[in-house]
Amino acid sequence: MEALENYIDGKLVPPGDGRYLDNINPATGQVYGQIPRSGQADLDAAVTAAEQARAGWQATPAEQRAALMERIADLIDRNLELLAAAESEDNGKPIALARSLDIPRAASNFRFFAHAITQFASESHAMGEAAINYTLRDPIGVVGCISPWNLPLYLFTWKIAPALAAGNCVIAKPSEVTPKTAYLLSQLCIEAGLPAGVLNILHGLGGEIGNAIVTHPGVKAISFTGGTATGAQIAAQAAPKFKKLSLELGGKNPSLVFADCDLDKTVAGVARAAFANQGQICLCGSRIYVERSIYPEFRERLLERVTALRVGDPLSDVDQGALVSEAHMGKVLGAIETARAEGGKILCGGERLVPDGRCAQGYFVAPTLIEGLPLACETNQREIFGPVATLQPFDTEEDAIGMANGTDYGLAASVWTENLRRSHRVARQLDFGIVWVNCWLQRDLRTPFGGMKNSGVGREGGLEALRFFTEPKNVCINYD
Ligand SMILES: NC(=O)c1ccc[n+]([C@@H]2O[C@H](COP(=O)([O-])OP(=O)(O)OC[C@H]3O[C@@H](n4cnc5c(N)ncnc54)[C@H](O)[C@@H]3O)[C@@H](O)[C@H]2O)c1
Ligand SMILES: O=C/C=C/C=C(\O)C(=O)O
Fold first, then answer.
1. Checking phi first, is residue 368 left (phi over 0); if not, alpha (psi -120 to 50) or beta?
2. Of 204, 351, 405, 431, which has the maximum CB count within 10 A?
């Protein structure tokens, strides 16, 4: 059985104390590999390597760093099939989705930040005839990047690429649930000729190696994507050490459907927003609010579309694969039970699915739509992070905005209307870091990405990410 290795100081190495975790294919329920269960000694070795590499990487001209990153992007493209198969096997997602979304985006992340760093500039502030200020933006040094399991290589590279581009050395930890593509990336970094120690990838448990990265005195900033509770724990540990923090956390995102929408496009868009990647995207629209006058028709059209989703073996031609783990499937099924107990009416789904053949032991849940629940209930307040969405009618624009804003989260909202004024008016009043109008997950990597309220602190993307991964220093030159 294949055992993955850590990537430390430019080499692939087993964990220091020889401990491993099982890697499970969620579509079959079978163990198919071993993952290093890294500990403090592995981290110390990685931080030492990163500290040694630091001066050289920082002094490497941005164009050369960019060229190396472009080489990594080319290698990701060249290995698309290998990486897509690994992502699907680790995560349970349809291989077609990994091929069309996850892996191309990982290459784009490297390419985007390779270009961005060559265009990055810092500010200057003139004080008339008295003085001039200019701001230096140097790399922070050694930084930590910790990512989740839902879009494994996509989100792992979304953090690593800007950190490296800005001249930092990185200690990165992928989710222990989906480590394989990060391991393959370490092989590609070696092939690309990335200098030793610039990027170090450690595998293992969040509560062990993840926590050790957060608390290590040599790691000066943490970029984290994951659950809100984990984010709070990381913030509590990092704050007294005055580490710079970027937190991308959970969501409970609304889709607002107005009677003046383009119904065909809206049904398709809202269904995709709710169920893409088995509903396991922090941006998924899991609360669907529909203007009452079109509620019956929209509900029927949406139900038709959702019940037609093909769920099954991620290697075959399906719309939905498996959920990421047995534990996560248990949580999602538990949330559906809670919805039932709260008086929700299950319109479709609501149960585990057992496909025939090799996936009979896999972790599949039927796409589920629920109606009849108030805003103030657990189902509409807690992130479920699975193929489960609720439907509610609304009467006025004001009501819709109030319901949309009525949770502790504030990551992403989508608004579906053909009325231009309404789209601007509603977007302005929504308390979310991202508002999509007549689209969902339409990504421009230059834009600020992240959430308000319990959905996080800080923004990723474009210059925001490069600013996060640099330390500004203002120099004031007096003319006299
Ligand atoms: N806002 C976003 O951009 C975004 C993107 C994807 C996922 N998410 C959120 O992530 C969650 C699902 O992902 P998950 O279950 O992997 O999240 P998680 O918080 O359990 O784990 C995320 C990562 O953090 C590590 N980790 C866990 N405990 C840690 C600790 N104490 N210290 C340091 N690291 C630790 C894990 O090993 C993993 O690598 C959902 O809530 C989802 O909304 C948010
Ligand atoms: O599950 C969360 C998805 C995050 C997506 C991004 O960070 C992105 O598209 O850049």
1. beta
2. 204
166 touches 198 (CB < 8 A)? no
- DSSP letter for 244, please: E
At residue 35, φ and ψ (nearest 5 deg) are -120, 135
pLDDT at 341: 98
Which tokens in the block code for residue 40?
């403090």
Has domain 253-444 been given CATH number 1.10.3720.10? no
The structure's pTM equals 0.97
Ligand nearest to the CA of 144: 1
Residue 358 CA to ligand 1 centre (angstroms): 29
470-478 β-sheet, strand order: 124-127, 131-139, 470-478
Give me the CATH topology for the region 2-249+455-477.
Aldehyde Dehydrogenase; Chain A, domain 1 (3.40.605)
- The CB of 460 under 6 Å from ligand 1? The reply is no
Question: What distance in angstroms lies between residue 148's CA and the mean position of ligand 1's atoms?
Answer: 5
What's the confidence (pLDDT) of residue 1?
Answer: 87
By most ligand atoms within 8 Å of CB, the mutation choice from 108, 154, 447 for ligand 2 is 154
Mark whether 326 is an active-site residue.
no
**Ranges in the chain annotated CATH 3.40.605.10:** 2-249+455-477
